[in-house]
Design a protein that fits this description.
The chain is 43% helix and 17% strand. The chain is of the alpha/beta class. Among the domains are: 107-215 and 445-462, Glycogen Phosphorylase B (Rossmann fold, 3-Layer(aba) Sandwich), CATH 3.40.50; 277-441, Glycogen Phosphorylase B (Rossmann fold). One of its GO terms (cellular component) is endoplasmic reticulum membrane.
C-alpha cells in the first residue's frame, strides 16, 4: 500500500514538473503552431493550406500526420514547416471488431499525446475534424498541459461518416456522436466549411464557429498548352488513354491523344478531332456513388452509337481509397468503345495541371452530414473548369446552377448534361465554353487572401 502511494506521488510530481517545464517553454514559443491531422498529410489540402498560411505570417509550424502520400512541394520546401510522421496502426487480424477498434483508439491516443509532448509548446493547436476520435480529447489535454489554445476545423462530422458504414443506430456511431459533441465544446476557436454547418453547430451542438470557405490555392489555375502537352506525354507512358491513336506522319512531331508538338519550333497545338477530357477525383468511399457516372457514360456511349455528334471521351478518376478495387472491377466489365476510363494516382504537382487541362469536372460527393462541401470542386473552379455535381443540402453555397456548372440528381440527368455540354465539341460558342468564361470573369478569391481576411484576425485577437 505504501509502495503504491509512493508511485502515485512520484507520477503526480513528475506530471507537475512536466507542466511547469512546458509552460516555461511556452513563453519562448508563442509564434509556434502545431497542425494535427489524424490522417494522411498529403490528402489533407485544407490543413496544408493552413500550415502554409501560418508559415507566411511568421509562425513556425509543426505538422503531425500520417505520411502516406507526398504533400505539395511548397509545404516541403518551407523552412518554417516541419512534418512529423505519426505511426498508423493497422487493424488487428484477430478478435471482435469492437476490440480491434478500441485497441486502435488507445494506441492513437497514447502515440499522439507522446508526439505532442515531445514538441516544443505551441500558441495554438490546429486540429482537423474528422477524424476527431481520439484526437480532440488528446489535443485538448495537451493544450491544458502546455497552455496552448485549441482550434478545431470542422470539415464534417466523424459520426456521420461512420454511419455510412455501420448505420446511424450502431453503438459505435452513437458513442462517436456523444464524444464529438462533448469534446467539441472544449476548443477555444472553431472553424467550419459552410454556413449550414455553422448554424447546425450553434443550434444542435452549442458550438460557435466561424465559416471559412475553402478557396483554391495559387497553383490551381488553367494550364498553358505546352505544360498540358508535357503532362499528357508523361501520363501516356503509363496510361494508354493519353496515347495518340496514330503516329504523326512527320517524324519531327510529338503527339499525345490531345495535343501535338512541333519539335523544331516547339509549338504545341490541340488536335482538331481530339477526345474530350472529363476528370473526377475521389477518396473511393461510401459518400461517392460512382455507379451514377458509369451509368451516365453508358448512355453517352449509346448516343454516339445512335449517330449523335459527340466526341469520344477520356474519363480520368484520380484518388485512392477502399472502394477503388470494387469500382475498377465494374469499369472493366463495361467494354466501352468510345470512352476510355483510367484511375491513376497522381503526384501532388500533376493534379492541378490535370484539372487545368481538362474540359469538364464531375463531382459525385454526397456529404454524409449534408453540411460540408467538396474541396475538389473548389480546386476545379480555381482552374476555370466547369463542374457537374450531384445535388445535396448545401451544395448551392458553392455550385451555382447554370452559372459555374450544373447540378444533377441521377445518372439520367447527368447523361443529358454531358450530351448538352459536349454537343459539337470543341465549338467555342458552346455551353461548356460559356461556363469557362463565367469562371474566368468571376472573382477568384484565393486561399491565402481568404485566410488573411478570416482566420488571421481570429488568432491574433485571442
Amino acid at each position: 500500500m505504501a509502495a503504491s502511494c509512493v508511485v502515485l506521488l512520484a507520477l503526480a510530481l513528475s506530471l507537475l514538473l512536466l507542466v511547469a517545464w512546458k509552460r516555461w517553454q511556452w513563453g519562448r514559443a508563442a509564434r509556434h503552431v502545431i497542425v494535427v491531422v489524424l490522417g494522411d498529410v498529403g490528402r489533407s489540402p485544407r490543413m496544408q493550406y493552413h500550415a502554409l498560411s501560418l508559415a507566411k505570417r511568421g509562425f513556425s509550424v509543426t505538422f503531425l500526420g500520417f505520411c502516406t502520400s507526398k504533400p505539395h512541394d511548397e509545404l516541403l520546401q518551407s523552412d518554417r514547416i516541419q512534418i512529423v510522421s505519426l505511426t498508423e496502426l493497422q487493424r488487428l487480424a484477430v478478435g471482435p471488431h469492437i476490440l480491434q477498434y478500441g485497441v486502435k483508439v488507445v494506441f492513437q491516443a497514447v502515440h499522439l499525446l507522446w508526439k505532442l509532448m515531445c514538441r516544443k509548446p505551441a500558441a495554438y493547436i490546429f486540429l482537423q475534424n474528422p477524424p476527431g476520435l481520439p484526437a480532440i480529447a488528446v489535443c485538448w489535454f495537451a493544450c491544458c498541459l502546455c497552455g496552448s489554445k485549441l482550434v478545431i476545423d470542422w470539415h464534417n462530422y466523424g459520426y456521420s461518416i461512420m454511419g455510412l458504414v455501420h448505420g446511424p443506430g450502431h453503438p459505435l456511431v452513437l458513442l462517436a456522436k456523444w464524444y464529438e459533441k462533448l469534446c467539441g465544446r472544449l476548443s477555444h476557436l472553431n472553424l467550419c466549411v459552410t454556413n449550414a454547418m455553422r448554424e447546425d453547430l450553434a443550434e444542435n451542438w452549442g458550438i460557435k464557429a466561424v465559416t471559412v470557405y475553402d478557396k483554391p490555392a495559387s497553383f490551381f489555375k488553367e494550364t498553358p498548352l505546352d505544360l498540358q502537352h508535357q503532362l499528357f506525354m508523361k501520363l501516356s507512358r503509363t496510361y494508354s488513354a493519353f496515347r495518340a491513336c496514330s503516329e504523326p506522319s512527320d517524324s519531327g512531331m510529338e503527339r499525345s491523344a490531345f495535343t501535338e508538338r512541333d519539335a523544331q519550333s516547339g509549338t504545341v497545338t490541340c488536335l482538331p478531332r481530339r477526345p474530350a477530357l472529363l476528370v473526377s477525383s475521389t477518396s473511393w468511399t461510401e459518400d461517392e456513388d460512382f455507379s451514377i457516372l458509369l451509368a451516365a457514360l453508358e448512355k453517352f456511349e449509346q448516343l454516339i452509337d445512335d449517330g449523335e455528334s459527340l466526341p469520344p471521351l477520356v474519363c480520368v478518376i484520380t484518388g485512392k481509397g477502399p472502394l477503388k478495387e470494387y469500382y475498377s472491377h465494374l469499369i472493366c466489365q463495361k467494354h466501352f468503345q468510345h470512352i476510355q476510363v483510367c484511375t491513376p494516382w497522381l503526384e501532388a504537382e500533376d493534379y492541378p495541371l490535370l484539372l487545368g487541362s481538362a474540359d469538364l469536372g464531375v463531382c459525385l460527393h454526397r456529404s454524409s452530414s449534408g453540411l460540408d462541401l467538396p474541396m475538389k470542386v473548389v480546386d476545379m473552379f480555381g482552374c476555370c473548369l466547369p463542374v457537374c455535381a450531384v445535388n445535396f443540402q448545401c451544395l448551392h453555397e458553392l455550385v451555382k446552377h447554370e452559372e459555374n456548372g450544373l447540378v444533377f440528381e441521377d445518372s439520367e440527368e447527368l447523361a443529358a448534361q454531358l450530351q448538352m455540354l459536349f454537343s459539337k465539341f470543341p465549338d467555342p460558342a458552346g455551353k461548356l465554353n460559356q461556363f469557362c468564361k463565367n469562371l474566368r470573369e468571376s472573382e477568384q478569391l484565393r486561399w491565402d487572401e481568404s485566410w488573411k481576411r478570416t482566420v488571421l484576425p481570429l488568432i491574433t485577437d485571442t
